[in-house]
Amino acid sequence: MKKFSKFLALSLACALTFSMTVLADESPDADGKNWAQAAVNTTAVNDSGETVEVAVSAPAKTTVSTVKDDIKQADSKLTAAVKAQAGFSKIADPELIFVLDITPAAKGTITVTIPFDGIKPAGTGEKYVLMHQNGDTWEPVSDVKVGDGTITFTSGSFSNYALFLVKDVSDAGSKGSSDHSTSQSDAEPTSPKTGEGVPVAGLAALILLAGAALCAKKETA
């Protein structure tokens, strides 16, 4: 009986540890993903090519929540502005990449380069759209370049910025539009979110308990 008790305790401990490890591995949220890296490594220059200090931080949670809610609504002003800037006749739900508060130390027209791990140039039938918050309105930024791991844009007004990836789902744009998503999935596997059930953990626990029951039966016999 002692052997059974020890085996059962060990089995339950292993299953619990595995489950907690998986559940703790939360997927990064779009609004906060890599912003700390961006805060340290973002660079900026003015029209004269002189380096300008720039502060990058996470915006207020209410701002992020509003952006997330608005972009899900097909008739919202934000969605309409993003669609118009993308120039596609029919789009899928825009993917929010980040919301960041970007503020240079100097005024005037500034070119900012933000490092962002995992981001890649848009594929066929895709376009990045950068929106700048001006009061209660979000305005598109026209001069935006996305490379491997960087976003560069030029603007004369700064505060909150939201970057979206927009996909053309019309007949003309849907062909080959999966290029970008494939490359991103290879570079950034999606982790299960906190609180999501993980079938593997449950299955492991059932197997271990079944083994414990079998051992108990043998000892009794």
Describe the fold and architecture.
- With 221 residues, this protein is of the alpha+beta class.
- It folds into 2 domains: 2-25 and 200-220, no CATH class; 35-177, no CATH class.
- It is 37% helix and 25% strand.
- It contains 6 helices and 9 strands.
- It has helices spanning 2-24, 35-41, 61-71, 77-86, 179-187, 199-220; strands spanning 43-46, 54-57, 95-104, 110-115, 126-134, 137-141, 144-147, 150-155, 160-167.
- The protein has a 5-stranded antiparallel beta sheet, sandwiched between helices. The chain has a 4-stranded antiparallel beta sheet with strand order 1-4-8-7.
Give a short synopsis of this structure:
With 221 residues, the chain is an alpha+beta fold.
Low-confidence stretches: 12-32, 176-198
Question: Between the first and last Cα atoms, what is the distance in angstroms?
Answer: 12 Å
What would you call the shape?
globular
For the secondary structure, the number of strands is 9
Total domain modules: 2
The radius of gyration is: 24 Å
List the topology elements:
Layout: H1 2-24, H2 35-41, E1 43-46, E2 54-57, H3 61-71, H4 77-86, E3 95-104, E4 110-115, E5 126-134, E6 137-141, E7 144-147, E8 150-155, E9 160-167, H5 179-187, H6 199-220
Antiparallel strand pairs: 1-4, 2-3, 3-9, 4-8, 5-6, 5-9, 7-8
Helix pairs in contact: 1-6
